[in-house]
């Protein structure tokens, strides 16, 4: 499944008198990714995989979670700060797997 996630961008708020100082521009920050498995207690789907992504700016990111080969699953993250997708693999031989996506900003 591929999911595009965008959060609202927070704007600075003036709490005192206006200033003529330039507003700093934030540089793009690269995302971090981790796949976390959790036992479900269900024999049909015994493990649920959650792809956690965090630490990136700007807020728009594309995410693809897919089975790659046999018992290997990959979380692929695309972001403007990356030259190529950031990949995180998970593999387990004796588990049936379900998936989930979490955005941890």
Give helix % range. Answer: under 10%
Instruction: Determine the N-to-C terminus distance.
Output: 20 Å
Largest sheet strand order: 1-4-5-6
SS class:
mainly beta
CATH class: Mainly Beta
Radius of gyration (Å): 18 Å
Q: State the low-pLDDT regions, or none.
A: 6-16
* CATH fold title: Immunoglobulin-like
InterPro entries: Ig-like_dom_sf (IPR036179), Ig-like_fold (IPR013783), Ig/MHC_CS (IPR003006), MHC/Immunoglobulin (IPR050160)
Organism: Anas platyrhynchos platyrhynchos (Northern mallard)
Protein name: Ig-like domain-containing protein
How would you sum up this structure in a few lines?
By secondary structure, the protein is mostly beta strands.
């Amino acid at each position: 499944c591929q999911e595009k996630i965008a959060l609202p961008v927070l704007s600075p708020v003036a709490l005192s008198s206006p200033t003529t100082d330039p507003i700093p521009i934030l540089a793009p920050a690269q995302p971090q990714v981790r796949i976390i498995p959790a036992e479900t207690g269900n024999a049909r789907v015994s493990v649920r995989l959650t792809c956690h992504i965090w630490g990136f700016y700007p807020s728009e990111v594309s995410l693809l979670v897919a089975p790659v080969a046999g018992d290997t699953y990959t979380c692929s993250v695309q972001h403007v700060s990356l030259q190529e997708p950031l990949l995180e693999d998970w593999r387990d031989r004796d588990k049936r797997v379900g998936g989930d996506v979490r955005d941890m900003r």
